[in-house]
Amino acid sequence: MVFSRYNSSHSTAPSAPELPPESYHQPQQQQYQSYYGQPSSIYGQSGGFPAGTQPDVVRAFQMVDRDRSGFIDEHELQQALSSGYQRFNLRTIRLLMFLFKNPYDSLRIGPAEFASLWSCLGHWRAIFERFDRDRSGKIDSMELRDALYSLGYAVPPSVFQVLISKYDNGTGKAGLDFDSFVECGMIVKGLTDKFKEKDKEYRGSATLSYDSFLCMVIPFLVSYD
Amino acid sequence: MVFSRYNSSHSTAPSAPELPPESYHQPQQQQYQSYYGQPSSIYGQSGGFPAGTQPDVVRAFQMVDRDRSGFIDEHELQQALSSGYQRFNLRTIRLLMFLFKNPYDSLRIGPAEFASLWSCLGHWRAIFERFDRDRSGKIDSMELRDALYSLGYAVPPSVFQVLISKYDNGTGKAGLDFDSFVECGMIVKGLTDKFKEKDKEYRGSATLSYDSFLCMVIPFLVSYD
């Protein structure tokens, strides 16, 4: 069943939290635009957060958004997530920024994207803890495979080999902490989402032009220091 | 002219140095295998280097291969390249390892691969210097585009935008040193080579399965610390 790998709506596998759809971003962006020139109103009412956002999430964001611009950059995101999760590697942070970014500003994220990212990490944290049975703070290769499956990604064995080889330091046995688990999972999620966009009929294959192939992949790759 | 982007043999653009073909690796591997159990003979004669390899290249390799195994790992490669080029970022080193690796051992490279990598870097260094007209040690976005073109990669504008955005820190203007230039160029080279393998008729597009897409891309992405 090829399409189950995609975590599609046809899949029987549990669903991973979805990235906020474009239609969700659009009204937020209009809201951001109305902020220009009205810095005093930025945190009025919901402060740009979806209704029902937990106060600690709002607090984590506002604490690092010192200039009250309504946006935070990668270093601020790293700091904001520390209050609820941990201090993630900047590489993981950049991946999260890329996957949850405001589509109109690739270097900063706003309240709606932050809330969505926070909730996604909560879900992933729960999955990680479920598979870290001995509470060592690490999961091994087989647990990683099962954890990704629980998130809705049935990574094929050939791909899984390639993926795990990047974390096992040549030993054949990888122990992933939560940071690496998030990095690894977000790569699978991000690439799967991108590929799915090109495979509208869920055939498990897609025809890509050279240009679109490079454009899909390059954002995941390089990053300035 | 779609196929010119690929630096194919049909292209009129100057050719980038090719990765050693499989047929080139095969006899080398047999040579490595004959080394097992005969450590004293490893550097006898050509020492596994192609005939005509410059003595300084052989010296750079042997200096870091302290256990005389005939293979060097990423840290040894970083050190070996310092003697002729510079101390590259470990991220760049890993990319070079991946692109020039011994196909039978993904974590180490041997003399033939090292010689090929050294010569490729020499060619890239010459291109970099040609475009760094003011000898500042950096090239800007437009020079990068021209330099990649000189290497045979006519990166389409949409891709180039994505690529450069990762190096310009949000300023719109990037200044790449030789390290970043190599990283950036090797990403383009590596992904182009992979895509070309799937586009045998040089149409500029290829049909990829979800599995093969992930397998093509993931090795470029994650790396253990």
UniProtKB/TrEMBL annotation, chains A, B:
Note one Pfam family from the annotation.
EF-hand_6
Keyword Calcium in record: yes
Q: Where is the composition biased (Low complexity)?
A: 21-31
Q: Note down the stretches annotated as region Disordered.
A: 1-31
Q: Does the keyword Calcium apply?
A: yes
Domain (EF-hand): residue spans on this chain: 52-87, 119-154
Q: One MF term from GO for this chain?
A: calcium ion binding
Q: Which residues form a coiled coil?
A: none
Q: Which SMART domains match?
A: EFh (SM00054)
What is the name of the protein in this document?
Answer: Calcium-binding protein CML48
Taxonomic source organism: Hibiscus syriacus
Q: Give the lineage.
A: Eukaryota, Viridiplantae, Streptophyta, Embryophyta, Tracheophyta
